[in-house]
Amino acid sequence: MTSLAPASGARRATRPSVARRAWRKASPYGYIAPFFTLFGAFGLFPLIYTAFVSLYRVELQNPDEMEWRGLDNYIALFGDEFFWTALRNTFTIGVLSTVPQLVMALGLAHLLNYRMRGRTFFRTVMLLPYATSVAAATLVFAQLFGHDFGLINQLLGVVGLGPVDWQTNTVASQIAVSTIVIWRWTGYNALIYLAGMQSIPHELYEAAEMDGASRWRQFFHVTLPGLQPTILFTVVVSTIGATQLFGEPLLFEGSVSGGISHQYQTLGLYLYEQGWGFMHLGRAAAIAWVMFLLIAVLVGVNALIARRRIRKEAVR
């Protein structure tokens, strides 16, 4: 009788420890379960269902009536000249907005990185365009680029240039839409670059200054190499944003077709026109998946460039 008592007590002692170890293993999954539940419901499921719908003929008037089409939606999509126009416009507007935007953001971040009066104020001002509503900003810029009474054409008249039709001309309308994007996102990217610059060791600048390097040489030989990961990140994020561009071209003239001759219709507007203008939900789902694949390719290119950069640094 006396020999069994310690054994039963040992069992009682081990049971809480086993339960505690099991809880420690399961608790992290419980903490992240809400995120994955929401992601599955509002992210993964719509993505899979969109791929499913893209293989059927579905009309907005009767969404329950689905007719199997296989890859016909994609074949019809690639045979539509307006799709290629929207793809070309998306690329052009993306370049016109991304390149000046990131160059200006880099220059502003370089200025804010030095000690200057009121730099906290200027850093706050940088975020004001980003915090402004897309609708409000686009409507203001639409008035500025007006043909008859727009401020931009009036300024052009002051310097002796004729008025520009910013809504009808292909190049002019794309520049106008790109200007809105540049105004909204330059300050945001400037703060990202500023955070990257402040993570660069100050000793590198001191060593370059001791070697007689000017501020421009320090920028090109110290700042830019240290910002390579940040620059790659902003390039990819800005390119993804340009691929999904929707609000600015839609509200610029209030036309889903992106102008009279589709001169600034992006892939986002083309998707909206097919799905909610022409009621072709299957075609719109196919466009959404094409956009998703384009973004996946861009992310893959970014990963490839980053991997090559890491290998080069490892060799050095």
UniProtKB/TrEMBL annotation:
The chain crosses the membrane at residues 29-56, 91-112, 124-145, 286-306. It is a multi-pass membrane protein. Keywords: Cell membrane, Membrane, Transmembrane, Transmembrane helix, Transport. It holds the Pfam family BPD_transp_1. Its main location: membrane. It is found in: Cell membrane. InterPro entries: ABC_transporter_permease, MetI-like, MetI-like_sf. Residues 87-302 form the ABC transmembrane type-1 domain. Belongs to the binding-protein-dependent transport system permease family. This is Carbohydrate ABC transporter permease. It comes from Haloechinothrix salitolerans.
